[in-house]
Amino acid sequence: MLFQVEMDVQIPLGLAPEVVEQLKKTERERAQELQKTGEWRHLWRIAGRYANVSIFDVASNEALHDILSTLPLFPFMRVSVTPLCRHPSSVRSDDS
Ligand SMILES: O=C(O)CC1=CCC(=O)O1
């Protein structure tokens, strides 16, 4: 199942810089693991914002929730999820 996920990151100003750096490092490592398994299919920065738009390819709503809610930066994100399905006019073979 494909989902578009937008993650808006809002790290509190008072958080210690070393804690922020560690969170970003573990977030990057987890994101790269999930990209290698194919579950996190695309990851794009939204220009001008500390936010990304991503495409996930996972087995279920629960699987998506488990992934998102265990991301290191999850406590500091606003997340919006849009379920996707194949467009009948798509010429791409990997859209579903
Ligand atoms: O920087 C972001 O948008 C948050 C994030 C998601 C994966 C990652 O490495 O950082």
Automatic annotation (TrEMBL):
Its EC number is 5.3.3.4. GO terms for biological process: beta-ketoadipate pathway. InterPro entries: Dimeric_a/b-barrel (IPR011008), MLI_dom (IPR026029), Muconolactone_d_Isoase (IPR003464). It catalyses: (S)-muconolactone = (4,5-dihydro-5-oxofuran-2-yl)-acetate. Keywords: Aromatic hydrocarbons catabolism, Isomerase. The keyword Isomerase applies. Pathway: Aromatic compound metabolism; beta-ketoadipate pathway; 5-oxo-4,5-dihydro-2-furylacetate from catechol: step 3/3. Residues 1-89 form the Muconolactone isomerase domain. It comes from the Bacteria. The keyword Transmembrane does not apply. One of its GO terms (molecular function) is muconolactone delta-isomerase activity. Transmembrane segments: none annotated. Homodecamer. Belongs to the muconolactone Delta-isomerase family. This is Muconolactone Delta-isomerase. The lineage of its organism: Bacteria, Pseudomonadati, Pseudomonadota, Alphaproteobacteria, Hyphomicrobiales.
